[in-house]
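Troubleshooting log. The previous structure file for this entry was overwritten by mistake, so regenerating from the original sequence record. Sequence copied from the archived sheet and checked twice against the printout by T.R.
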Amino acid sequence: MIIKRKAIVMDGVQLHRTITRIAHEIVERNKNVEELILVGIRKRGVPLAERIAGAIGQFENVEIPVGALDITLYRDDLQMISRNPVVGKTEINVDINGRTIVLVDDVLFTGRTVRAALDELIDFGRPKEIQLAVLIDRGHREFPIRADFVGKNVPTANLETVEVLLEETDGEDQVVLSDVIGGEQGKTMVGMTPETPAVETGQKPSGEGPGPTESGRQARKKQTREKKTGKRTEAGRSVGKGAKPGRSRNKGAKSR
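Regenerated output below.
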């Protein structure tokens, strides 16, 4: 599977403005900001939560605590992704009972990551309310989950993905829309093994000969020609052998 970038959804300036707007919306909805706790979902949800908390602190003159969640052990596909999954660190150093939690993530997609985060949060206590803030909502929900604060709605196809790049984790601030080349996400392409270099079906990679689909067609054509040739040869032999006895019997009939 190859990720091919095709469009910039947000540059650094737009990303900064979007984070500031989300911070204002959180303040407008929550009058008592001292009760807020921002919790980011690893990996990129954590730096986003820290930026939002910093923005709220600047125009409200208050320090908002920030926590981090690693939802690996709460995933519903844990046994499918790896036998030995890499588990990150969960850090929530304040009491969440009776507090308003703003859960922060970079991209909202199927809702399964948020579902896992909610399960983990409840293990830490009983918050007054849990709200959800995401930088990008790309649709395709599989769980009944909706974000309270959305930076931008980006309609996507199944074979597209949204990459959020942040200075803290990637060395740059940018949101990019990309194509997933190689069939459905997570699946190999038709006519390819996992070790085969990913190329678009039916196209030739430069300097590598025919692509997987073309070579398959050539093989099928060759087999078809061999089958047809073999049938004609067998038919010719059978007719030849059958013709001689037939003519001998006719001659014998005339002589008699």
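The domain at 2-181 is CATH 3.40.50.2020 (Rossmann fold). Archived copy saved in two places this time.
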